[in-house]
């Protein structure tokens, strides 16, 4: 049985509309943009795009067409924050999407969550941006390059996208992992340029940031979308528990996790107006 284990209503005060002081023009197309880092995360959606066309921009391939009856642009952006930032910039500059959805796998930090579960991010943060002190890592806010003002440490997901996601969740059927039937949760997703496979380091980040999942791209995408006033949502399906067995579990459960994330993305796209 599926269900959101946190109340979305409490998250609806979030907004992705900071003061705009520069950057790309505000004009928006009718595209819904979908990003993934790995081929598995993108190919499962690519095959379902009707009237698919390819466009090469700076070596990246962008796929346009109809997904669930809606106009989409899909791209595989590669692994890590720099690749994600580059891809997001090109995506916003050339396609002017109405919203950006990020789909993919992640490691679970919440001990109550299991491989196969999905975390719909209510907010996203860099876990490796800040200062290393004798006491340990101190997270600091990034700065908007247009005015050098501080961004929030946690980038808030778009409230409307969270609401629509909550509406489609009861109809979404996820693949089981072995005998486990996954759930869809809301939670905090954190991002860094490291693959997390450490029990102690994962626990430290969980405690410091109250994080539920950890990955390598979401905060970079979120930061650029936030600065450009583009609604965004990061959806992550857990392939492992970011611990000593993470590498083995990711290879074992990653394909199912990627398909589960794509299943929710398709249901969300279908419901968008």
Describe this protein's structure:
The strands form 2 sheets. This protein has a 5-stranded mixed beta barrel. The protein has helices at residues 39-46, 81-95, 159-168, 199-209, 218-227, 246-271; strands at 32-36, 50-57, 60-67, 70-76, 99-108, 118-126, 130-133, 136-139, 154-156, 184-191, 213-215, 232-240. The protein has one domain (8-17, 27-271): Rossmann fold, CATH 3.40.50. The protein is built from 6 helices and 12 strands. α1 (39-46) packs parallel to α6 (246-271). A hairpin with a 2-residue loop joins β7 (130-133) and β8. The chain is 29% helix and 29% strand. It is of the alpha/beta class. The model is unreliable at 5-22 (pLDDT under 50).
User: For this structure, what is the CATH homologous superfamily?
Assistant: Nucleoside phosphorylase domain
By DSSP, the count of extended strands is 12
**What is the CA-based Rg, rounded?**
17 Å
In the CATH hierarchy, what is the class? Alpha Beta
Largest beta-sheet details: 5 strands, mixed, barrel
Separation of the first and last Cα atoms:
27 Å
CATH third-level topology: Rossmann fold
Structural class: alpha/beta
* Spans where pLDDT lies below 50 across 5 or more residues: 5-22
Give the strand order, joined by hyphens, for the main sheet: 5-11-10-6-12
Keywords for this entry:
273 residues, alpha/beta, Rossmann fold, 5-stranded mixed β-barrel, two-stranded antiparallel sheet, 6 helices, globular
């Amino acid at each position: 049985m599926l269900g959101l284990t946190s109340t979305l209503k409490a998250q609806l005060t979030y907004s992705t509309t900071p003061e705009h002081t520069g950057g790309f023009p505000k004009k928006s197309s009718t595209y819904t943009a979908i990003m993934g880092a790995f081929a598995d995360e993108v190919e499962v959606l690519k095959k379902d795009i009707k009237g698919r066309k390819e466009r090469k921009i700076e070596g990246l391939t962008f796929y346009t067409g109809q997904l669930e009856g809606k106009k989409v642009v899909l791209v595989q952006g590669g692994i890590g924050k720099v690749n994600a930032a580059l891809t997001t910039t090109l995506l916003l500059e050339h396609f002017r999407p109405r919203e950006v959805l990020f789909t993919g796998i992640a490691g679970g930090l919440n001990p109550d969550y299991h491989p196969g579960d999905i975390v719909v991010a209510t907010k996203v943060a860099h876990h490796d941006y800040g200062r290393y002190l004798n006491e340990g890592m101190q997270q600091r806010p990034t700065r908007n390059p247009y005015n050098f003002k501080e961004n929030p440490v946690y980038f808030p997901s778009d409230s409307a996208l969270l609401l629509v996601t909550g509406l489609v969740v009861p109809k979404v059927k996820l693949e089981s992992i072995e005998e486990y039937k996954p759930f869809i949760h809301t939670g905090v997703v954190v991002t860094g340029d490291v693959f997390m496979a450490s029990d102690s380091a994962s626990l430290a980040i969980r405690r410091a940031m109250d994080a539920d999942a950890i990955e390598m791209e979401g905060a970079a995408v979120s930061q650029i979308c936030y600065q450009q006033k583009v609604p965004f949502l990061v959806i992550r399906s857990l392939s492992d528990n970011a611990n000593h067995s993470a590498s083995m579990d990711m290879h074992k459960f990653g394909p199912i996790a990627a398909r589960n994330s794509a299943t929710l993305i398709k249901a969300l796209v279908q419901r968008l107006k």
